[in-house]
## 1
Amino acid sequence: MYPIDHVWIDRAEKGELFGVPVLFAPIEEVILSKSFVAHRERFDGADVLHILRARAEAIDWKRLLERFGGYWRVLFSHLMLFGFVYPGERSRIPDWVLHELGGRLEAERRTPPPTDRVCQGTILSRQQYLPDIERWGYHDARVFPRGHMSPEDTAVWTAAIDDDD
């Protein structure tokens, strides 16, 4: 969903794993990838919150906002949960980040909602939003032109659900 770019490489932390030099994913990229894992059988939200608690001051918040792009609500939801889970730590999230995201929400609320019936829940969980697509007539946000998958890709992805049980 998000490509590795030159900034990913530049911000990667050098380390060693089993005696082999490696580049560890930048913290912003780990947060980004884990933020979208919200399956019934696996939810990485706690990992996101633990990373925020442990490394909030090390995060390049501008980069993180850029990486989330149009999916900024997903980041905002995790930041809201952070304040709930760790009320005494909430000041570790920069005020300007919360103001920026809150401003986006306010601006969005002042515009008419989209007219197309799309469900973005499938980006978070490949199973839990299938009724929205299959029964209730919503378009799957994973599929072209909104997403990066073909209908055939989503069929394979959906068929693999039973294999993971």
## 2
Amino acid sequence: MIVADISQNYDGSAWAKNGPLMVTSNLIKLCKAKAMKTINDAKCHNIQLLPPNTFFSIYYPLWQLYFDTGSREIVKKRLNNSLIAHYWGKLSSKTKIKSRMPIHDLALEKCSLTAKYFK
């Protein structure tokens, strides 16, 4: 269902449309729900939706926190209950990663192999 939707409606210029919005609209159709909140309540196909902060604990307007040495504790605290660290690559791709940046701390902790390439 979602793969077919992506193949027919993919839009390379609209990030959220291809990810969260597409999944949301397909789940609403699949579960015959009026809103996302009702999907967890209805136990639709054993699907359990996780809150957005599980994946986006630092939302895109604040992406620079990952690169601000003064935000190390804030980032660490926000990522504490998150499954992933989405560092908004389209926005951050030209930012150089340096020691003592929160993203460097994250690389050291989770992927030390890549951290050795940062200065």
## 3
Amino acid sequence: MPKTHADLPPVTLQHRMHAYLVIRPIGVSFEAAMNHPRHAALRKVIECKAALIRTEAWKAVHQRVVTPVRRVRLGTDGHPVGWATQMVMAGFEPIKQPELPL
């Protein structure tokens, strides 16, 4: 996952509409939920759900990268004996889908 929320794409109106449809508040329209101060708590819930939907959509098209890292192997006395390679989880990269011929 990106280190900060600034690395993710912004939450769009489509994400907010999707979150509103998932929550399904009774008797409150989307416009009222987003603009009326009376529904401030509902707006915060919609914003949080929209951010979650945005993050899940971003993770669906990115994959975690595994990189090898060299580490020192220590002996029983604490002195270096040799090197070992350890696979470590790194950042995310876009999933590259090959174009299939028709």
## 4
Amino acid sequence: KSDQFQPHMPRLQDLLLERPGWMVRKQLSFRGVCFGEYSADYVAVSHRWESPGNADPTGRQMIALCDHLHSHPQIQFVWIDVMCLSQGKDRSPSEKAEFNTMLANVNFLYLGCQVLILLDNEYPRRFWTMFEAWLSFSA
């Protein structure tokens, strides 16, 4: 039915329009990463995009994330690329600059936070997802 909940992962730009109160800007420090200050209540999600331009067309990944959050109520903050980094070719110059800054530092999330790996058959075939997994195991 069309009135049933349809899980999806909106792009950051769309999320800011649809649910502006959901976004909280946080600045993590290298010291905090090294000393585990974020490991209790932050989770970084490692997943693959299922299709170009749409990370989760079926909603399966969002359902898995919601299930994880339900069973880990101590988690207060979630970082997932599609909803935390501006996506698409329609990014403004300031969005592109922020994207590049965040991309250069995203490795700290996978070193200093809990990491939820949304594993499927294609996950091990992608460099970026394997890099995220390696970082999470290295912490």
